[in-house]
Amino acid sequence: MNLTQMNASPDPGSGATSQPTRGRSRGGRKCGGGRSANKQKRAPVQSWRNTKNKDGKSSLDLIVEWLTVKGNFNQWRSSDTSKRDVAEEIAKFLKDNRFPNREWKGVEQQVTGLEKKFREALLWQKQTGQGILDEAEATQAAQEGTELDNDEDHIGAAKNETEGVSVTVCSVVVNILVPDITIL
Fold first, then answer.
1. Residues 60 and 101 in one domain
2. Residue 21 falls within a domain, yes or no?
3. What pLDDT digit, counting tens, does each position of 66-75 carry?
């Protein structure tokens, strides 16, 4: 139907209107749209971190607790068991600990997110900071034998700065993952 046909007067005896039927031909909602009577209502949204059970633990705390039990993380990483099966087991653990509305898909997303954040922290920690050290060596070499040579240890300072930043980043990531832990 082109624009002219859409705006044209309807056939007087047909009872048709000139209004287009937007969306219906492409899967849009029909009259009386909304949620189908067959679908179940969703449980209210709960924060994985901020909603606590009676023991003061969040769903995320419990997932980390489950993963840190000997053998559980290996079960998650194993190719012998599907991620879905393991996520369903974790969801059951959450249900047993007063979080009945956690689905396996959400659990899988949370564990995958934890893994990603942990790997990023490890990569950050493993970075050598070689660029910073090269710059410190160049500065120290340039100052040797000049009036700027004041026995300052540029390389040692650069190493301390690099290690300090690494510890800070790792601490932030760990505190995000496990907020109740203290890192010295």
1. yes
2. no
3. 998 999 999 9
Tell me the residue type at 13.
G
Q: ∠134-120-97 over CA atoms, to 5°?
A: 150
- DSSP result, 19-60: ---TTGGGT---TT-SS-TTSPPPPPP--TTT-B-TTS-BHH
Same domain, yes or no: 104 and 52 = yes
User: Any bridge partners for residue 58, and if so which?
Assistant: 52
Beta bridge partners of 52: 58
Separation CA 100–CA 92 (nearest Å): 8
26, 69 contact by CB (below 8 A): no
Host domain of residue 161: 127-141+152-184
CA 174 to chain centre: 14
| 94 within 8 A of 59, measured Cβ to Cβ | yes
**Residue ranges of the chain with per-residue pLDDT less than 50:** 1-11, 14, 16, 183-184
